[in-house]
Each structure stands twice: as structure tokens, then as C-alpha cells.
Amino acid sequence: MKQILNENSGTGSYRYKSQRGLSENLVREISRKKGEPAWMLKMRLVALEQFEAMPIPSWGADLSQIKWGEIYYYLRPVDLPYKSWKEVPDSVRRVFTAIGVPEAEKAFLAGVTAQFDSEKIYGSLKASLAKQGVVFLSMDEGLTQYPEIVKKYFGKIVPYGDNKLAALNTAVWSGGSFVYVPAGIQVDLPLQAYFRINAEKAGQFERTLIVVEEGARVHYVEGCSAPAYSSASLHAAVVEVIVKERAKVRYTTVQNWYKTVYNLVTKRATVAKDATMEWVDCNLGSRVTMKYPSCILQGEGAHGEMLSMAVAGNGQDQDTGAKMIHLAPRTTSRIISKSISQKGGRASYRGQVKMGPAALGSRSKVTCDALIMDPLSRSDTYPNNQILTGSSQIEHEAYVSRVGEEQIKYLMSRGLTEEEAQTLIIRGFLEPIVAELPLEYAVELNRLVKLEMIGSVG
């Protein structure tokens, strides 16, 4: 899928654009415009109080430069999402056509949603899946059409008190995805969501809820981008995934935010007996990313997996990782983290593996592999491993290496140019992650990494 690195196009106008800054009046206005039930407005208001009371996180990346009072927290480009690309306004359609969304929808996907700033602008789902009871809507549509399911699960895995950014999301959330897969249904092609921040000093706060019933299977893919602006934007999403017994979910993210975006995301899944949750997370772009997808392995035999990749360049801080919380017997988890630091960038792995008292016979393996391209760049690993039972096992491995001049010269002696030699080394390093991506994403990720790495050997 084609990602836009440097486009500055827009819709020209919005149906609604809030004043800058956050207030109770704004939260009430968002809820009113969406026609939400009273319980959701109440949760938003309590979350707003929580956000205002909690301090800015002092650990991890530096967030002191975020201008909270200058952000547009709600921008509504359309009144209702379109069901045909022909209906989408030309200025918006050109953005998604350049990214490749309509083309990918035809060739590779079971369903698509596209979000522009605060609202979904387009959505589709194959009729055969809809007939089987599969639901793929925006979160707003999910709340309207399936209020019982949303009320049952919304905020239960990531409560508003979990952290400051989760509280902010709960107060001003808009858009995101609602996915429901009935028991036993296998969704063979991926469901794709694409999130675009297209306004300067904008905030995007999508909320995603995925519920997969017993024995079902789904692969959800999201792509993210933003155009080039000199001022900072904020992306603070929350994702909650419920994986029932014997079900399997894969959640793949390829983000390519522009380098002024603060990407602060909370993602968490509960995994039932003999179920599997897989996170595949690829992070390019953004000024700061803080993201640690988590699995709560609460059923016997549950499995959690995290494959992550981060590329940190000039002025970037990629603070990423994973959490695996083992609460039941015979649970297993695996974390593979790959990072590349170049041109003075910083990439950090920050993770936690916890074996609870009931996690008898459980196992976890963590592998952190960092590649540093020059003396100005930095890589850090911050593991937090806790074992509260004597019959479980945790393995942790960390490697740091540097592309040396001798490696480049050796490959060049075999007929490669310096750029081709560098690309070959990088592709080999990232191959375990790229191999797990859908084909169109794997091709695009290789292209994006190549663009990021040009001239990076120092």
C-alpha cells in the first residue's frame, strides 16, 4: 500500500471544526453531535476529569513539547460516511487513491474503512461476510447499531484511569473500528482500516474494539499517515481486543506518520483458553512513538505474540515494546523486537513479561535485536520480567550491532553499489518482520525503509 510522505492536501472545509483546546463544553458537543447515549457522555466527562488530574508521564520519551491547548480535538469532514469511492469528495479521494486504498480493497481485502481526521469517511465489507454475521463498522456506528456489545466491552480492558492518554482518548474519542466476528467464522482476507491526519495541529483519537467469538479467526490491518506540517499533531488511540476460546486474531500496524506527530497509543488484548493473539507492529515516522501492545493471557493454553519493528532517524524517539501478562497455566508468549537507529535517532525497547501465581508451566521468550547505523544514534533496552511462580520460564536475549564499513566494502567487491549493499543488509535484518506482513504491505515497507535509510551509513 502506497504511503504518502509529504503531501499537504486537504478537504478545503469541514462540517465542524472545534476551537483549539480541551474543555467540558467540547466533550459535551462531541457527544451531542454523535447522538450518544447518556452512559457514554458520563464516561467521557469522568475521563476528562481523570485526564486533567493525571500528570504527564515522566518516563520514556519527552512529551514536554506537546501544546495541549493548541490542538484541534475534533474535526468532522463529513456528516455520514460514504459507501462508494465515487461519492467521496475529489480532494479526499485523491489522498486515498494516492495511498492505494481503493486498489488494495479490490485485490487483497475483505473490507475497508478510511478515516480522515476525526471521522470515518468511507466503509465497505464483502457481502458474503456480512451474511455470516461479521460486522466491520466505525466505532460510532458500532455504538449506534450494537449498543449492548459496545457497553459490555468498551473501557473494560483499557479503562480511562489506565494512563493519561487513555483518559484523553476516552474523553474525546471519535472514529476507529468496531469489529465483531461470530463463533466459528473464518475471515480469510484481511480487514483494512486507514487513518489519516490531514490538518495542522490536529488530534486524532480513534477507538477500536474487536470482539472475536469462540473458534473464529480474523486479521485486522491498519495503516497511518499524515502530511508535512511544521507544527506538532497528536495521535492518541486506544485499541481493545477480546479473543475468545480457540479464536485467533492478528493485528497488523504499519505507521508512517510525518515527523512532527506524537504517536501515543494504548493497545491491549485479553486472550482466553487455547486462543492466540498476534501483534505485528511496524513504526516509521513520527517525532515520538510510545506504544506497547499487550496480551493478558487469562485462559489455559493461551498464546500471545509480538513482532515489532522501529526505525528512528534524525530527531525521532521510537519508544516501543510489548507486555505479556500470564495469568493461567500453560500459557506461552514470544516477543521479537527489531530496531534501527540512524542519523542521531533513538530506538528503545520497553517491555514487561509477568508470570502470575497461577501461570504454572508457562513460558515466554523475548528477543531484542538492534542495529545502530552511526555513532550519533542510540538504542536502549528496558526489560521488566516478573516471576511469581516457580514452575514457569522466561528467556530474554538482546543483541546490538552496527553496520561496519568492512561489510559494505565486502558486498561492493561482489558487484553491488554502496546503496544496494546497505539495502541488502537492512532487508536481511528485517526479514522476520517483513515475512509476516501481507504482500502489499511487505513490498511497501521495504520501499519506505529504503527511503529512510538512504545515506545513513556513517
Automatic annotation (TrEMBL):
Residues 125-192 form the SUF system FeS cluster assembly SufBD N-terminal domain. InterPro entries: Fe-S_cluster_assembly_SufBD, SUF_FeS_clus_asmbl_SufB, SUF_FeS_clus_asmbl_SufBD_core, SUF_FeS_clus_asmbl_SufBD_sf, SufBD_N. Residues 195-429 form the SUF system FeS cluster assembly SufBD core domain. One of its GO terms (biological process) is iron-sulfur cluster assembly. NCBIfam families: sufB. Belongs to the iron-sulfur cluster assembly SufBD family. This is Fe-S cluster assembly protein SufB. It comes from Candidatus Collierbacteria bacterium RIFOXYA2_FULL_46_10.
